[in-house]
Amino acid sequence: MDLSIVLPTYNEKDNIINLVEQILEILKNTENKEIIVVDDNSPDGTHSAISNAFEKNDRIKILLRKSNRGLANSIIEGIKISKGKNIIVMDTDLTHDPGLIPKLIYLIKEYDIISCSRYCVGGLMENKIHFYLSFFFNLLLRIVLKTRIQDNLGGFFCIKKKVLDALPVEKIFFGYGEYFFRLLFFAQKKKFSIIEIPAVYNTRHEGKSKSNFILLPFKYFFEAIKLRFTVN
Question: Residue 128 and residue 80: Cα distance in Å, rounded?
């Protein structure tokens, strides 16, 4: 298997089918692929919706999780059952553009990790307030973590499976979106090659965000401090 795409979901019934259909169309000429939808027992019926829509498609795996839920845990569970030598992870609220997938597939031949960045030249977010608030918080993360990576919280990336196998995933995949700067931090320490490519993050049109934009920055900052000063 060449490619696995891991899609963590929670209350994304109104978005996930659209996203999977877009991915299938983009990858219609790619044979060795699989799409793994990992649902955290969404009360809105996400699991039933995706199961009914693609029950006859054997390229789509659907995993229902009823315990130890959370974004990072969902992602690593999807990765664990994946068979692709390259793995793409993206959000399922349609903020991440699946049109970038072919570019990720092309670049993973040369790099270990490709991150779709809002803050390198050409990157952007439709939500300008969120864009600038996140931009300044990323500057803070860059100082704390001593990294040149511009977007440490994007969460839309492609990584080689062998790279993940070399990283301490138990120290990375827990909590919420902060797993991503932990992933990049440990990858840099291992000297893996990382490149950022510009991406436009769209505004969610269906459903509600699960992020608490008041509390999360404090939690992320604490996690960044802990990471910086406890990992040798």
Answer: 36
pLDDT in tens, 106-141: 999 999 999 999 999 999 998 888 899 999 999 999
Instruction: Name the domain count of the chain.
Output: 1
Radius of gyration (C-alpha) of the chain in whole angstroms: 17
Answer whether residue 7 shows pLDDT above 80: yes
Question: Measuring CA to CA, which residue among 62, 2, 57 is closest to residue 31?
Answer: 2
| Residue with tokens 């993206």, as numbered in its chain | 90
Residue 180 belongs to domain spanning = 3-230
pLDDT score, position 194:
98
CATH number at residue 101: 3.90.550.10
Specify the length of the chain in residues.
232
Q: Name the phi and psi angles at 164, rounded to 5.
A: -60, -40
Residue indicated by tokens 């990765």: 79
